């Protein structure tokens, strides 16, 4: 699962003086669209309370990129070429081909996904999750993921996220980015939970050796 996460050198238009939060809304439409709407509402709250400069990048699938105009209309934002902008000038940039680059560059992840959340943890990232309306990423799923991945996951809320849960989550994001000791723990926990890259090659080699042994 940790293979093929090497950055390709995509230009994410990042300011080196600012932190970056990655948004992982999932991959299945319409759920990913609904998740991204929730995450964008959360991003607005984070921007309002943060004392640090933060930039936001979305790792989206192609089908979600096609929904950005409607998402912008729903939230009264503007959309142009993958850039979502609210009335206060807050910008969130979406990419459909830069998952590994976004994940590796992130200081924190807001995740409503399955495998992608697990990969983020494996890279040592702190992941904050909120329950969605499903059908996939619900509280039940997120809670099971929390038990699997340990301290790197922080789950806020026990029901589909409303404004109260989003506000609590924004506060948790602020606290997490300021907690250097916790961030160090996430680095260690990621490797312990998910292992190192190279698993696919080892599995393939094991199969080859097993087959060769039976044929000899």
Description:
This protein is α/β, with parallel strands linked by helices and 216 residues long. The protein has one domain (19-213): Rossmann fold (3-Layer(aba) Sandwich). The protein contains nine helices and eight strands. The chain has an eight-stranded mixed beta sheet with strand order 3-4-5-2-1-6-7-8, sandwiched between helices. Mean pLDDT is 91; it is low at 198-204.
Q: What best-fitting shape do the alpha-carbon axes yield?
A: globular
CATH architecture: 3-Layer(aba) Sandwich
Secondary structure tally: strands: 8
Task: Supply the helix-strand structural class.
Answer: alpha/beta
Reading off the top of the CATH hierarchy, the class is best stated as Alpha Beta
- Any idea what the radius of gyration is? 18 Å
CATH superfamily: Glycogen Phosphorylase B
Condensed summary:
This protein is α/β, with parallel strands linked by helices.
Supply the key terms.
single chain, 216 residues, alpha/beta, Rossmann fold, 8-stranded mixed sheet, 8 strands, globular
Task: Note the topology.
Layout: E1 19-24, H1 31-49, E2 54-59, H2 62-65, H3 68-75, E3 78-80, E4 83-85, E5 91-95, H4 99-105, E6 108-111, H5 115-122, E7 127-129, H6 139-149, E8 153-155, H7 163-177, H8 180-194, H9 199-215
Parallel strand pairs: 1-2, 1-6, 2-5, 6-7, 7-8
Antiparallel strand pairs: 3-4, 4-5
Helix pairs in contact: 1-3, 1-7, 5-8
């Amino acid at each position: 699962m940790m293979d093929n996460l090497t950055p390709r050198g995509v230009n994410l238009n990042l300011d080196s003086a600012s932190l970056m939060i990655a948004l992982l809304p999932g991959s299945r439409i319409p759920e990913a669209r609904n998740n991204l709407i929730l995450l964008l509402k959360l991003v607005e709250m984070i921007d309002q309370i943060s004392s640090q400069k933060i930039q936001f990048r979305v790792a989206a699938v192609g089908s979600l990129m096609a929904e950005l105009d409607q998402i912008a209309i729903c939230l009264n934002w503007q959309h142009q070429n993958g850039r979502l902008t609210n009335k206060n000038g807050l910008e969130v940039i979406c990419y459909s081909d830069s998952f590994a680059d976004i994940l590796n560059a992130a200081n924190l992840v807001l995740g409503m996904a399955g495998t992608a959340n697990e990969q983020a943890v494996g890279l040592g990232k702190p992941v904050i999750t909120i329950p969605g309306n499903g059908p996939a990423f619900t509280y039940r799923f997120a809670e099971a993921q929390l038990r699997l991945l340990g301290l790197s996951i922080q789950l806020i809320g026990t029901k589909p996220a409303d404004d109260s849960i989003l506000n609590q989550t924004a506060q948790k994001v602020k606290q997490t980015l300021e907690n250097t000791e916790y961030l160090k723990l996430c680095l260690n926990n990621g490797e312990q939970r998910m292992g190192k890259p190279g698993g696919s090659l080892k599995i393939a080699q094991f199969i080859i050796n097993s087959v060769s042994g039976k044929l000899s």
